[in-house]
Amino acid sequence: MTISEISKKCNISPDTLRYYEKVGLLSYVNRTSGGIRNYTEQDCAQVEFIKCMRSAGLSIEILRRYFELFRRGKRTLKARRDLLAKERENLQMRFKELQDTIKRLDYKISVYDKALKSKDNELKF
Amino acid sequence: MTISEISKKCNISPDTLRYYEKVGLLSYVNRTSGGIRNYTEQDCAQVEFIKCMRSAGLSIEILRRYFELFRRGKRTLKARRDLLAKERENLQMRFKELQDTIKRLDYKISVYDKALKSKDNELKF
DNA sequence: ATATCAGTTAGAGTTAACTCCAAGTCAAGC
DNA sequence: GCTTGACTTGGAGTTAACTCTAACTGATAT
After folding, report:
1. What confidence tens digit (pLDDT) does each residue in A2-12 have?
2. Model confidence at A28, in pLDDT bands (50, 70, 90)?
């Protein structure tokens, strides 16, 4: 798969793919004899994983650390597991916060709806 | 309340408070005769609201728009309600995504735990 | 009256994560 | 052999959201 093919397939720009490679999220992408990147299905799955974690809020730096551990081989299994478990806990916290914020917005919207009905209230902010 | 007092109370830096004022999130903060900001409880509640929305991911720009509508008075009630409702929907989507990502991490962690037990598996990434 | 200290401003600097650009290369079609 | 078009690189530019700096001011304690 060329860079533009995986770009379309994974909906991520070629520039971003090269950037991810440069900073260590996608190491050792195969090349053709002419020096052109040749992505595998496995690379594609990894890109999907990165995209998913990025959109949940994991930083490039955390993911870089994760893949760096990977490159060091099997003896880092435990460290990788623990890194993921820690990030999972962070997400769990953000999940609860998000839930509360949605509730807060729901309440605020209901206050707006009341004000709109009664036609003469203003809110504090 | 001086800036350092509200800073401690709301756990937000004085620089950030001045920045929020500059970009239009906190307009018309009262001043003493000497020109020093004098925050009210109401300002404090507004700062808490901003903090909550910011940490859920709402941008400064969206919040700026919200408070700008506010300044235009009662006739923008509906527009403000709709702005909040739209952001609420965005958060709802991110909430679901986050839930899926947490599940995905749980699965991945369980795969790690299996690999750690069997002592000889490596994962793909 | 002077030193101290918390506040003020405008504007510069920082960070993360891209995103763009210019100059060059390579394979394929005419 | 030449053009075209997709690729390559290193490095510069962008954006959001702060964060810091320098120079200044005004109230309070000695």
Report:
1. 999 999 999 99
2. confident
- Euclidean distance between CA atoms B120 and A114, whole angstroms: 63
3-class secondary structure, B27: coil
Q: How far does the CA of B36 sit from the C1' of D26, in Å?
A: 10
| A95 contacts chain B (CB < 8 A) | yes
Residue B68 — pLDDT band, cuts 50, 70, 90? very high
B47 CA, C4 C1': Å apart: 31
Q: Closest nucleotide (CA of B15 to C1')?
A: D19
- Condensed to tens digits (0 to 9), the pLDDT of residues B109-122 reads 999 999 999 977 88
Residue B37 DSSP class = B
Query: What was the pLDDT predicted at A63?
Result: 98
Whole-number distance in Å between B20 CA and C12 C1': 18
Nearest CA in chain B to A71: B125
Give the closest-approach CA distance of A109 to chain B in angstroms: 6
What is the residue extent of each domain of chain A? 1-72, 73-125
User: B62-69: long-range contacts at Cβ-Cβ below 8 A with a sequence spacing of 24 or more?
Assistant: B62/B87, B63/B25, B64/B23, B64/B24, B64/B25, B67/A125, B67/B24, B67/B25, B67/B26, B67/B27, B68/B24
B84 touching chain A per CB within 8 A: yes
What are A50-89's pLDDT values in tens digits? 999 999 999 999 999 999 999 999 999 999 999 999 999 9
Half-sphere exposure of A55 (CA within 13 A, CB side): 17
CATH architecture of A1-72: Orthogonal Bundle (1.10)
Please indicate if any CB of chain A lies within 8 Å of the CB of B111.
Answer: no
